[in-house]
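Example for tutorial group B:
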C-alpha cells in the first residue's frame, strides 16, 4: 500500500480544492459565491483536511475517495472562521481583510451559511460504506463547534471563568474538528471503531495543545508570521488561558491595574497590550501556558504510540503533529 508524503497529499487536496473553487467562481449570484471564493483563497495550512487524508492513508491508498470529505472539513472550518470574525469584529485574517470587511457583514453571514451546506454537499459525495457514522460524527462536531463559540462569547462578560471551563470551551470550539478529521478519515477507510476512537482522542489532545499555542502566539508571537494582529485577545478581553491564569495569580497593585484595563472601554490599544504583557511576564504566564501545552501534547504522543498499527505508518502523523507544535505562526 502506498504511503503518501505531506507534499503529495497537499498537491492532491489542492487539486480537488481548485475544482470546487472553479465551480464556485462560475456560480450565481456572484454576491453569494464571491465571498466564499475569497474565504477559500485566503489560504491557511489546511491542517484539518491533511489530517483526514493522513488518517485515511493509514488504512487505504485510494486517496481520491477521501477528497470530498477533506473538502467538506476545510469548507466547514472556513465557514466557522468567517462567522467568528464577524462576532469578534476582527479586521485581519492571514494578513488580508476579513470577509465581512472586504465585502459586508450581510454578505459574510449569508455566504457563511452557504458554506455550511456546501460542506454537507461535498461530504455526501464521498464514496463510503459507513455513511451514517460519518454523517453523525460530522453533525455532532458541527453542533459542538457552535456550542464552543457560544461559551466563548459568554465568557466575554465574565471575569471568573475557570481553567476547566476554558479547556472545555476550546475542546468544543477547536479540538473536536481535529478529532473529527482524524476519525472521519479512519471510518471512511473502514478502520474499525477502536482505532478510529483512538485517532479521535489523539486529535482532541492535539487540538487542545494547538489552541493553547494559538493563545500564546496571540500575545507573544510575531504578526508577520502569525497572520493576525498581536495582542488582539488582550484588546478584546478574550478569556484565554493566559488571562485566566493571570487573574488567578495576580495580586496587589498589579491586580488593580489588570482589573482597570479589563473595565476600560476607551483606551490606547498599544498601551493596553504593553501593560497587560508586562503583568503576564511578571507572573510567568508564558511558561505556565507552555507547560500546559506540553502536557496535552505528551498525552497526544502517548495515544499515537498506543495505536496498534505499524510504527512506520504513524511516522507522518507524528512528524506533522510535531511541526504543528513547533510553529512560530
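The residue assignment follows.
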Amino acid at each position: 500500500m502506498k504511503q503518501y508524503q505531506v507534499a503529495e497529499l497537499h498537491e492532491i487536496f489542492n487539486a480537488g480544492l481548485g475544482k470546487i473553487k472553479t465551480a464556485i467562481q462560475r456560480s450565481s449570484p456572484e454576491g453569494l459565491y464571491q465571498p466564499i471564493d475569497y474565504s477559500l483563497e485566503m489560504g491557511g495550512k489546511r491542517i484539518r483536511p491533511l489530517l483526514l487524508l493522513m488518517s485515511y492513508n493509514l488504512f487505504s491508498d485510494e486517496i481520491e475517495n477521501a477528497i470530498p470529505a477533506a473538502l467538506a472539513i476545510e469548507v466547514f472550518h472556513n465557514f466557522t472562521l468567517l462567522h467568528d470574525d464577524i462576532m469578534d469584529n476582527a479586521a485581519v485574517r492571514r494578513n488580508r481583510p476579513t470577509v465581512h470587511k472586504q465585502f459586508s457583514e450581510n454578505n459574510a453571514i449569508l455566504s457563511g451559511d452557504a458554506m455550511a451546506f456546501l460542506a454537507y454537499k461535498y461530504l455526501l459525495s464521498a464514496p463510503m460504506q459507513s455513511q451514517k457514522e460519518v454523517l453523525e460524527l460530522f453533525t455532532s462536531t458541527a453542533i459542538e463547534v457552535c456550542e464552543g463559540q457560544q461559551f466563548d462569547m459568554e465568557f466575554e462578560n465574565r471575569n471568573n471563568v475557570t481553567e476547566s471551563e476554558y479547556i472545555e470551551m476550546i475542546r468544543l470550539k477547536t479540538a473536536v474538528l481535529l478529532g473529527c478529521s482524524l476519525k472521519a478519515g479512519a471510518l471512511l477507510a473502514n478502520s474499525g471503531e477502536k482505532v478510529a476512537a483512538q485517532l479521535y482522542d489523539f486529535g482532541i489532545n492535539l487540538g487542545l495543545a494547538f489552541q493553547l499555542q494559538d493563545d500564546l502566539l496571540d500575545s507573544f508571537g510575531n504578526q508577520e508570521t502569525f497572520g493576525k494582529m498581536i495582542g488582539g485577545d488582550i484588546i478584546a478581553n478574550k478569556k484565554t488561558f493566559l488571562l485566566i491564569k493571570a487573574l488567578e495569580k495576580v495580586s496587589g497593585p498589579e491586580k488593580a491595574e489588570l482589573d482597570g484595563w479589563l473595565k476600560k472601554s476607551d483606551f490606547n490599544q498599544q498601551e493596553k497590550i504593553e501593560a497587560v504583557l508586562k503583568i503576564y511576564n511578571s507572573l510567568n504566564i508564558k511558561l505556565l501556558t507552555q507547560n500546559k501545552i506540553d502536557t496535552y501534547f505528551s498525552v497526544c504522543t502517548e495515544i499515537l504510540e498506543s495505536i496498534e498499527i505499524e510504527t512506520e505508518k504513524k511516522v507522518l502523523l507524528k512528524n506533522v503533529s510535531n511541526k504543528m507544535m513547533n510553529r512560530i505562526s
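The first strand starts at residue 92 and ends at 93. Compare this with the pattern of hydrophobic and polar residues in the output above.
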